[in-house]
Amino acid sequence: MTALAIYLMAGREAPELAEAAAEGGADLIEIGFPFSDPLADGPVIRRAAERALAEGMRTDACLEILARTRDRVAVPLVPMTYAALLEARGYDWFAAQIREAGATGLIVADLPSDAAPDLDRIHLVAPTSTSARISLAAERTDGWLYLVSVTGTTGARPVLSPDLAPLVARTRAVSAVPLYAGFGIATPEHAAQAAAIADGVVVGTAAIEAAEASGPAGLRRFVTGLRRAIDGAEREAVG
Predict the structure, then answer these.
(1) What is the overall mean pLDDT for the chain?
(2) Cα-Cα-Cα-Cα dihedral sign, residues 140, 137, 180, 236
(3) Quick one: which of 104, 111, 60 has its CA closest to 84?
(4) Which of 3, 109, 149, 185 could form a disulfide with 40 if both were Cys (CB 3.0 to 4.6 A apart)?
């Protein structure tokens, strides 16, 4: 079954939103630890990070939110952040703290695959990644590989990136690790198209927008629509 990952920003509402996403069919929840200069994020996630920082979401507060989220959901929880937050306290300290709070993985958006080789994390590759970089990332990644489907930041796009299919093909040529596609996937149609070629689908900006517009109930409906589209695409592929 194709996995569905939903990205949420750490904040007071995150535990309830995560529970709603899981009820809607999410198999994994990414919890964004906000950073003041999020280079990989588009405007929606940037604004969500700014709001989180304004309400006091620093590292310790984010860890508390992660633990509270773990109390409410059973699906894997994966913090996603930037290297500066790890460097402030130390990579080992950060990794130990997120595990204690209930994390089952870690994504560091701006940490290259050849940096911090002892840090267990999910690696990212993009359409611009060389074959050597893809091989290194696949070798070192923790469980699955995050495919950045666009050359750019997060954010909804009108169509699924045409760069995704070639990136999937290049990565499968060098590794059998599960591949999750993200960045620019915003609608059930996008999710179904990505599910036809990837092992997982990651939705961030559109999920945050659904939560902002209609709260937990709206997010649950949105995730349910994504789940149905993915499952429908799988049934068509089998049939």
Answers:
(1) 93
(2) negative
(3) 111
(4) 109
Closest Cα partner for 7 from 225, 209, 221, 203? 203
How far CA 181 is from CA of 12, 89, 100, 193, in Å, comes to: 28, 30, 28, 11
Is 30 annotated as catalytic?
yes
CB-based contacts of 200, cutoff 8 Å, min separation 6: 2, 3, 4, 5, 27, 28, 144, 178, 179, 180, 181
Q: 105: closest CA among 15, 49, 30?
A: 30
Q: Where are the beta strands (DSSP E) in the chain?
A: 3-9, 28-32, 77-81, 107-108, 124-125, 145-148, 179-182, 200-203
Give me the residue spans of the domains in the chain.
3-238
**Per annotation, catalytic residue among 19, 30, 163, 199:** 30
Is the domain spanning 3-238 CATH 3.20.20.70? The answer is yes
Among 72, 27, 24, CA closest to 195: 27
> Could you report the per-residue pLDDT of 157-182, keeping only the tens digit for each?
566 889 999 999 999 999 999 999 99
Catalytic choice (13, 19, 27, 41) = 41
DSSP H helical ranges for 12-111: 14-24, 43-54, 59-72, 83-89, 91-101
C-alpha 148/C-alpha 183 separation (Å) is 6
Reading the block at residue 152, the tokens are: 């750019």
pTM of the predicted protein model: 0.94
